[in-house]
Each structure stands twice: as C-alpha cells, then as structure tokens.
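Field reference: sequence -> structure
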Amino acid sequence: MKIIIKTKNLELTSALEDFIYKKIGMIKKFINVLKREDEVGKTLAEVFVEVEKETKHHNKGQIFSCQVEIKLPGRSLLAKANSDDLYKAIVEARKEIEAEIKKYKFKNIDKNRREQRKYNNY
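Structure field:
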C-alpha cells in the first residue's frame, strides 16, 4: 500500500505526516486481505490523502477538510470529512473509508456466494 499526501493552504509538518501515516496506515489490514502485491513488488492499492484548510472567508474559526481516495483494480473508493479540527477530520475520514472498504469486501464475497449457490442448484 502506497500513501500519497497532498496539502492545500497549510504546511505539511513532520508531526502531521506521522499522524496521517499512523491513522490512514491502519486501513492496510483491510486492503491486504483484498489485494496482494504482484510478483514485481509493486503495490496494487494506492491511497491518496488530501488535507486542506478551507478558504479564509469563514467568520468563525477555521474549517479543515480531509479526503481519502483508494484506487483498487476496478474500483475507486472515496471518503470526505470536514471539521474544525484537522486531526478530527483525518480520523473521521479514516472511519468513513473503513466503512467503504468493508462494504466493498462484503459485496465481492457475497457475489462469489451467489455464484456458488447458482451452480449448487443444478
């Protein structure tokens, strides 16, 4: 799994980068079940994390946004979260992408089960 981080309107500090790798890296356990590395060692799943501070025209406080996109063969999963705290937005986006991955996995497993049921009836 390869994590690519992009920031807008804020600086990527080492603490923020470590936090993103720690939190978003937790979804690796869900993806490893789905896709294995190919024989060359190139990972098949890429995770794009975009963290940004919204425009400066807000009247009260700052609003942060986090977008996580996972590109898998045949499908792209996307999660977005907004919050007044940057770290909270990252955690919310991780929770949302975990739910998307679980839904994707269940759909693939269920598809295989339906196919097996169809052939077992004959």
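Note: The longest strand covers residues 64-72.
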